[in-house]
């Protein structure tokens, strides 16, 4: 009998192999005097497996089961991880939306998802009622105290499911596992349809790409990424910070958790990396640091490298919600490309992660239905980045036009078909087979002498001592104007209100 394709399938095995190893740690906060103001909460692998089984059984009894789209609005906590693995075990489809996005966009995402169940903290339920979120949801669960909105509580669901034994739906690779909405930072937020095979492939690819072995201790500052930790046999330490505002994280609290629990690896956005870099305190226990979500500024890479031990690795994977990881580069190699980046080459994002096939095609703003309609470019030519591989998702939920614009069907020589994802980014391959990121396709400027790309123009001006930040903006009729903000500096730059005497292009 074939085992279910499910990210939660790793839990029973790990519970048997390493039952007493902590899977999730939620550190108590330290007060001004150094003492704890709240106690640590620890879930070992035995408890994570058993309690998520109980919750999965309880959810099924309350009608939240196979294929049901379920909004999850729970803060990073042990309950969040118990709940997510329980939903996977039950075969339900969690719907995750970045809580930091615009309120109107958040409502739009929830309306598009057409969720039939809503699980959230009390504040999320208050917002649901006040703002009209997820009106189609009829099954309600509160993580915490339930007030007057009906439904039940997570605590009750767990009690009712206790003693039901192992739970794991017989999910197939192509079954929908989750709907993860993009952040909206580069366009309208869209619900990415994740199938169970996508999650399982991500686990395998990250294990191989970064050399991850069970037993490590991770501090993941982006909650969805932390879901991979238990499947990889790691201990996940939940950071004391607001994950929607990484630039405001308290570095002392992060260092406290790193020191107390012997954290050996850390995942964070470039904004969080800058917080740690500017804090300047060494990070001697870390053996692996990973930063994704945007290009990491060269000065941050250089500073973080000085804070790490010599043998530590600093990885900056390239990818997106629709496909991750795509390519990866280690900090030492990235540092070696800084001069090229500041000279207009773009940002090097490394080599494709096997078995991804990354190809550059001619820039085209129209949908491409079949791969035969795409023109593959030679190394050195800038075009649109595409990727085909086991983690490349194949659709957006309830957005057919967006799916047609971002996906290309490809017939394989040996028979069968696959989906090629258009990253929406432009870039090129160099002679060494490394991928260079040049910016977003929609943010290019069509000048009289040809297209200009943000990541090839802005870094050139960012190194000027009187410029804090630049933005490439077209001026005039596209394709006819030879002027743009960056190319006409300093006339198109103005003093920035937030940067004192430094100039800011906008």
Walk me through this protein's architecture.
Helices cover 30% and strands 24% of the residues. By secondary structure, it is of the alpha/beta class. Helix 11 links the parallel strand 12 (265-268) and strand 13. The longest helix has 17 residues, at 45-61. The protein is globular and about 70 Å long.
SSE inventory with pairings:
Blueprint: H1 10-17, E1 22-26, E2 41-44, H2 45-61, E3 69-73, H3 78-90, E4 93-96, H4 103-113, E5 117-120, H5 122-131, E6 139-142, E7 152-153, H6 154-161, E8 176-181, E9 191-195, H7 196-210, E10 217-220, H8 223-226, H9 228-231, E11 235-237, H10 251-261, E12 265-268, H11 270-279, E13 288-291, H12 298-307, E14 313-315, E15 318-320, E16 323-328, H13 331-335, H14 338-345, E17 347-352, E18 357-361, E19 383-388, H15 400-406, E20 407-411, E21 417-429, E22 435-440, E23 445-447, E24 450-452, H16 454-462, E25 467-469, E26 493-495, E27 503-505
Parallel strand pairs: 1-11, 3-4, 3-5, 4-8, 5-6, 6-7, 10-11, 10-12, 12-13, 13-14, 25-27
Antiparallel strand pairs: 1-2, 8-9, 15-16, 16-17, 17-22, 18-19, 19-21, 20-21, 21-22, 23-24, 26-27
